[in-house]
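Mods, move this if it's the wrong board.
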Amino acid sequence: MSWAWIGLVPFALFAFLFLILPTMFIVVGAFRAPDGSFTLANIRGLFTPSILAAFWISIRVSFWSALLGCLIGFAMAAAITVGKLPNGARSPLLTFAGVASNFAGVPLAFAFLATLGRVGLVTVLLREWFGFNLYATGFNLLSFMGLTLTYLFFQIPLMILIVTPALDGLKREWSEAAQILGATRLQYWRMVALPILWPTLLGTLALLFANAFGAVATAYALTGSSLSIVPILLFAQIRGDVLGDPHLGYALAFGMIFVTGVANAIYMWMRVRSEKWVR
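Not the wrong board. Structure tokens:
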């Protein structure tokens, strides 16, 4: 018997205590009545108009922040890998992406309020120097648009970190072969590069969706209760100041686990497909 397996014991114990066991507890609680009997009432409670609206807002915020994060992040990653930017630009961008992808919660919410709030630095400068009132255009940081914009701060860097190795995996011979056959640069990307990268792009889109769907600290610190999304409803249930049924809270958590589980399953499946092409 190899003693190397002992190195996995701390990870397995941590995963069981803080991931597997709580997930099982939530799933069981979602189908349990206060008296301990089996019930579907908690799941049916998820289909009330207020909770459905919260799920819909969460899905929209997650989708648009993931889509915009993929597009902008891909463009930035392509610029430092296959673009014409100097080699010195790659290291600072990847370093910043590694830091910014983990910058969330209250500090991120405060940073955006201090920058784009009603009395934020950029808002005041636009009004005083250029006579442009940002909030007169209908923009509101404490809204769907503002939360999506805030999420982009960590969605774009995460996309850069994930897609950069995939872009590095594009073989130079593929581009040279396309040029020899008379293909333009646009035709190479449309017929060769993008079909190879497509599983990676779709998988990363699913991962960014799951990343935004489960974010609660940033949304709560930024919007409070003005924007009803599922993580905030669940947070209110944990605090016990809004919902009176703890098992409905289990059902909310179960719904979030289901949505993020589907998104992560798509990501892992797409990643396996993309790695075949890279190899």
